[in-house]
Specification:
By secondary structure, the chain is mostly helical. It is built from 20 helices and no strands. The longest helix has about 30 residues, at about 370-400. The structure holds beta-D-glucopyranose.
Length: about 450
């Protein structure tokens, strides 16, 4: 792989780092924010979830913005929004400003969660596209882990402003980096800037025949299809839309963020003694999440998307079933408690090498170029709505149905996902983006 392509993907992946950091950091910061602004439970919950509302808004508009002004300026713009949001929330003098700041951060996350994987997959040569888009998920997990660590280190003095404000650093790097990055060659062809597009393709591919082949298939795909939101609903594109939206929702309703956002609460339920031990265990969750994503980077282009998804989802199912069993026992102490905790790590690890990265990869691959921005936008929007639904319902489900039924529901949804992948999802390994065929598309 060319160092150039790796650099381009790494800069864009900073959008993922900010996604992970900004969604993870609030769990530690909220303890001090709620003291400072004397928040009741309702306002606390809203302070946590307002970012997700911003994400829904940002992802809804991102596709059309990226199709209109280009991938590169959109990602640069996301960097600016991240910066403003971080400053606004870190310097907030009252709760209202803090809420605005977190909403703005959410807009940035929503925008970049569509455009970063889209941009990476459009500049990546087919044989390493899986690894490069998985790099984006890797950056998300580094961001989450960094947030846990920063929260831990700054908790002693209750420095919530620094916790939120540190996001300024990656935002500046993202902005600075995107100024120097190229536009996606696919976008350039789409807007008729063929000369520049050709130059870009030549920088990406070492040999001319590969870049020529890619150019021909991009131009071919532009000839046949029209873009826009209406085109997304046309019979030839609809199967891709169904796959994108369904996978995006399934990635959330199989429960990952109940562990990422509420880990310390689950540890408490599993009998972990002190708050400090829970925070430490949560950092371990972050490390497993991060480390296991490397497995995807290594294997996703070699053995393919679907085999990894089957392996990961099966592991998630088994781990969730064991957790449901463990939590159904009257006393979760001793070895049973340990089994529950190990299962939780296995669950996160299995997600990390499969559904975590592969969702972002597949939704960046299955839509034809003219509707790629719009298709990713709608799928990502569905992902954020699913995220919101799970993070809002988790504690209530545990209270009303009990934790065994809650984890059991996530387990059943893993099986539903396996069946869906088997029947609906195409294998896209090694194909040029324009050669990926979905249903009748
Ligand atoms: C998901 C996020 C999740 C993260 C965990 C991403 O792929 O979309 O909702 O928090 O993985 O690593």
């Amino acid at each position: 792989m060319r160092a150039y392509v790796l650099l381009v993907a790494s800069i864009a992946a900073l959008g993922g780092l900010l996604f992970g950091y900004d969604t993870g950091v609030i769990s530690g910061a909220i303890l001090f924010i709620s003291k400072q602004f004397a928040l009741d439970n309702r306002l606390q919950a809203f302070t946590i979830s307002v970012v997700l509302i911003g994400c829904i808004g940002g992802s809804a508009v991102s596709g059309s913005v990226a199709d209109r002004i280009g991938r590169r300026p959109t990602l640069f713009g996301a960097g600016v929004i991240f910066l403003l949001g971080a400053l606004l929330s870190a310097l907030a003098g009252n709760e209202a400003i803090l809420l605005c700041g977190r909403f703005v951060v959410g807009l940035g996350i929503g925008l970049s969660s569509v455009v970063a994987p889209l941009y990476i997959s459009e500049v990546a040569p087919a044989p390493v596209r899986g690894a490069l888009v998985s790099l984006y998920q890797f950056a998300i997990t580094i961001g989450i882990l960094a947030a846990y660590i920063v929260d831990y280190l700054l908790a002693g003095d209750g420095q919530w402003r620094w916790m939120l404000g540190l996001a300024v650093i990656p935002s500046l790097i993202l902005m600075g980096g995107m100024i120097r990055m190229p536009e996606s060659p696919r976008y350039l062809f789409k807007v008729g800037r063929d000369l520049l597009a050709r130059e870009e393709l030549q920088r990406i591919y070492e040999d001319e025949s590969a870049s020529g082949r890619e150019e021909a298939s991009i131009l071919e795909s532009l000839k046949v299809r029209r873009g826009g939101l209406a085109a997304l609903l046309s019979p030839s594109i609809r199967p891709a839309l169904v796959i994108g939206v369904a996978l995006a929702v399934l990635q959330q309703v199989t429960g990952i963020n109940s562990v990422i956002y509420y880990g310390p609460r689950i540890f408490e339920m599993a009998g972990v003694g002190s708050a400090a031990a829970s925070i430490l265990a949560q950092s371990l969750v972050g490390a497993v999440n991060c480390g296991m994503t490397l497995v995807a980077i290594f294997f996703v282009d070699r053995i393919g998307r679907k085999p990894l998804l089957y392996a990961g989802l099966t592991g998630m199912f088994v781990a969730l079933t064991v957790m449901a069993y463990a939590f159904s026992q009257p006393h979760l102490s001793g070895s049973l408690g340990t089994i529950a905790l190990v299962s939780m790590m296995v669950y996160v690890g299995c997600f990390a090498f499969s559904f975590g990265p592969i969702l972002w990869l597949l939704i960046s691959e299955i839509f034809p170029l003219p509707v790629r921005g719009a298709g990713m936008s709608v799928s990502t929007l569905a992902n954020w709505v699913g995220n919101f639904a799970v993070s809002q319902s988790f504690l209530g489900m545990v209270e009303r149905l009990g934790s065994p039924a809650t984890f059991g529901t996530y387990a059943v949804l893993c099986i539903v996902t396996i069946v869906f992948v088997r029947t609906m999802v195409p294998e896209t390994k090694q194909e040029l983006l324009e050669e990926v065929h979905v249903g009748g598309a």
